[in-house]
Design goal:
With 243 residues, this protein is an alpha+beta fold. The protein is 55% helix and 15% strand. The chain is built from ten helices and seven strands. Helix 8 packs across helix 9. The longest helix has 31 residues.
């Protein structure tokens, strides 16, 4: 059996054969068959999703043809313990929410097909994120390190000009390399990270929206609310009540 999990909020540590791997909001975690593991550091606000998969010669993965099932399973077996979903985190959460909704709805051939398609989409997204991350680290490790620093400290005021100077390249070249490594220009990447952290604060704290806006580096409550609404699709106050 292979376990694939996703951390929606909180953080934890994945212990795999004695090696500790931090799992942050927006991260997948993968436990391959016959590999000792356990999860530690479970905060009270932790929210994770996970599912188990079995693969054998007589049980093709999600009913796929044998060659396709084998190709996917072989890639799954090469995954590292954790993979960041990055800006796809909201999409992953929506997929899991739809899976639960379908599971609780009346069963039909159509709902089964939809659920199977959602699981396959999750698996393919995980594999794509892992492959992209590996390529990025090989071709531009310094830019990826900067992106990870921004993601870990979304409320800080990072200057693109200063980051480019530290990388000893021009601002334009830095922006292009950053977009190539992450899929987004630096400022949009930081805004995505800020909104993701803001969602966690809205879920897990009683901080006012104005205080969250300040912590995330926005110049005003209105600026934060506008950005949140544009990226999430609903104002932060309404999202908090529904979350």
């Amino acid at each position: 059996m292979m376990e694939i999990g996703f951390c929606s909020r909180g953080s934890l540590a994945l212990n795999v054969s004695g090696q500790i791997h931090p799992v942050m909001p927006g991260d997948f975690f993968i436990n391959r068959p016959n590999r000792p593991h356990n999860l530690t550091n479970r905060p009270a606000n932790l929210c994770i999703y996970y599912f188990l998969m079995r693969n054998s010669a007589s049980n093709a993965l999600l009913g796929l043809p044998p060659d396709e099932s084998l190709a996917i399973w072989q890639r799954l077996m090469k995954l590292p313990p954790t993979v960041s979903a990055s800006t796809h985190a909201t999409q992953v959460e929506k997929m899991f929410a739809m899976i639960f909704k379908l599971h609780d709805s009346p069963k039909s051939a159509y709902s089964s097909a939809r659920m199977r398609n959602l699981f396959l989409s999750l698996i393919l997204l995980l594999l794509e994120r892992s492959e992209q991350r590996g390529a990025k680290r090989e071709c531009d490790a310094e830019i990826v390190r900067i992106a990870e620093t921004i993601a870990a400290n979304p409320g800080e005021a990072f200057s693109v000009t200063e980051l480019a100077a530290k990388s000893s390249i021009s601002k334009t070249h830095f922006i292009n390399r950053f977009r190539k490594a992450t899929g987004l220009p630096p400022l949009k990447f930081q805004n995505e990270c800020r909104i993701r952290r803001a969602k966690e604060l809205l879920r897990t704290t009683d901080l006012t929206i104005a205080d969250i806006a300040l912590q995330m580096g926005f110049c005003s409550h209105q600026h934060f609310s506008g950005m949140f609404t544009r990226l999430v699709g609903t104002p932060p106050s309404l999202w908090r009540t529904k979350g």
